[in-house]
Amino acid sequence: MSDPRILTVRPAPDEYAWTFGGAPPVARIAPGTVLDLYTEDCFAGRVRSEKDLVSQVCEFPFLNPQTGPFHVEGAEPGDTVAVHFVSIEPARDWAASTTVPLFGALTSTTTTATLQPPLPEKVWIWQLDRDRRTALFRAHDSDIEIELPLDPMHGTVGVAPANLEVRSALVPDAHGGNMDTPEMRTGVTCYLGVNVDGALLSLGDGHARQGEGETCGVAVECAMHTMVIVELLKDVATPWPRIESDTHIISTGSARPLEDAFRISQLDLVRWLVRDYGFSESDAYQFATQAVESPLANVCDTNYTCVAKLRKEWLPARETHRGLHARLRETAAALRR
């Protein structure tokens, strides 16, 4: 097997994409290409201290910059682009989190309108110890300090939407986008259905860590050095973003209200069992009901995202997505040597 091509991309400040769809590709890549990327945090690097309030240093809607898009040669509607995360590493020794007025799960918003005043705007700067793999929380209103383990992930991964749509990089939907699931970490493969020629893949929104649900609307936001392998599955449809790890198969669904996002992820998992594991629909429905794990991804974005995941050890010994995840794991291991 020949060594994969490695493309290094370090965008200048004016070279990021802010949408999925509507942005020209920064490069054309062949399937099997390794992308060595720098991604900026969701604030475009402008929140650097506790004095840098989002409302003052950021300009809406220019939030959540994406590295890309990349035109994947040969990708056509009805195919699937696979993105395997070889490594996700913080690019700085600090990360930022905030509260933002009229945004988050425990405050008034423009769509959940109340007479309550908006929560005050605050910034927390988290110190990252990349050698010890920790992130340090320092409280504003007491002397509490707590170290949490680093768990780097990408909140936003996606392709151009269908039907000529252009979607803000803040929005998750069937094309992927700002799903904000902690499942999108090193070692997993993300499967995205292709909607336009070339797919137009982008990613960004690195998080040093994030709890399930992203309750306040903002994770531990961090610039990242990320390496991915991009592959193409011809004639394999993926209606909603899927993730495969060494231990689980994982479906996602994004919508409002939250129960519709839950239904989408559960239905996609049932259909995955039918397509690749030999279940009938009713048997898949029954089995998934008793075996599924259903973590929340986000309950704060324009659409909410739910996850449905099943342990591979409980499934029949069948191949899914043509066994691509296992092959990409081998390629990733060779890259790290």
UniProtKB/TrEMBL annotation:
GO terms for molecular function: hydrolase activity, acting on carbon-nitrogen (but not peptide) bonds, in linear amides. Gene3D superfamilies: Acetamidase/Formamidase-like domains (3.10.28.20). This is Acetamidase. The lineage of its organism: Bacteria, Bacillati, Actinomycetota, Actinomycetes, Kitasatosporales.
